[in-house]
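Data card: per-record layout.
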Amino acid sequence: MSSQDIPEENLPAEAAAHGAVGHGGTAVAQRVDDDPFHDPGLPAHKPRIQDIDERAAKRSERAVALLFTLSMLSTVAFIACFVIFPVDKLVYIWPFGRVSALNFSLGWTLGLALFFIGAGAVHWARTLMSDEEIADERHPIEASPEVKAQVMADFRQGAAESGMGRRKLIRNTMFGALALVPLTGVVLLRDLGPLPEKKLRKTLWAKGKQLINMNTHEPLRPEDITVGSLVFAMPEGLKEDDHNFQIEIGKAALMLVRIQPDDIKDKRELEWSHEGIVAFSKVCTHVGCPISLYEQQTHHVLCPCHQSTFDLSDGARVIFGPAGHPLPQLRIGVNDQGNLEALGDFAEPVGASFWERG
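The structure for this 358-residue chain is written out next.
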């Protein structure tokens, strides 16, 4: 069907006019009400009950304040659950089954804290803030000075209509809820682990503890270590099936080499050795990698991770690489049975540097 077959009253005004003119007839003006593309405009604004009844506005204000208060209580409950529930406690909750009491309680309390803040903000906006719709014509991207001034005026008007200054109960409870919620993130920092206290400064080495060969699990004797050899040792009493073996060996791992006493340059190193046998920490002072590459002619040991190199004939000082300080030395001697023993713990913390080293 062509436009010629459509009655003129069903055509848009321009098409009808053109059609009429094309046929020699008189153009008929179409009424605006019949234009399907006519902008109907915005509906008439209908005031809410809170706009005309201050008692209803007060009820909404108290409801918003209650939601913000519930958010604060949920945040406090989050912190309480974090302290109360142990990390390994399981509880049965239908229909979830057996779940971690800590994770379940933290999820619910944090979720409720955020939900109540959102619900309070939405209820505030829907019942107390201005809801009058305003049409704004499209304008160029770059704002003119007049537009900027209008924006600031609208902002001030919106701030005034929000009641932020007048409704102090809402404002104060909202600030309280927003201030407490970030505490959940601060409390979670506890999961980084317990404070190290003095644990990083101490190892299992102590006076009288024998040096145990990590390969044979037998006490080491001076004759077991020849010039140019590299031997690894651990403290007496530490066993590989201990639950804390990896933690303790990560600090107490020891390497021993035998150097001709005349080749030892550092005076303290010579005093802390036994017949040229020197004992140094096996843990690199860069990021804690185990050191195992020894060059017997130069007495250098190399960390395989980042190539930090230490001179074992000169106090294990750093001669290359990113390590920040020498390897700690363990003072050793011989007991009544002729076995090598420690004469104390390391004089400084072993391994990678940490922020409270000093």
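Known properties of this structure: Confidence is low (pLDDT under 50) at residues 1-8, 10-29. Residues 54-84 form the longest helix (31 residues).

See the next section for split statistics.
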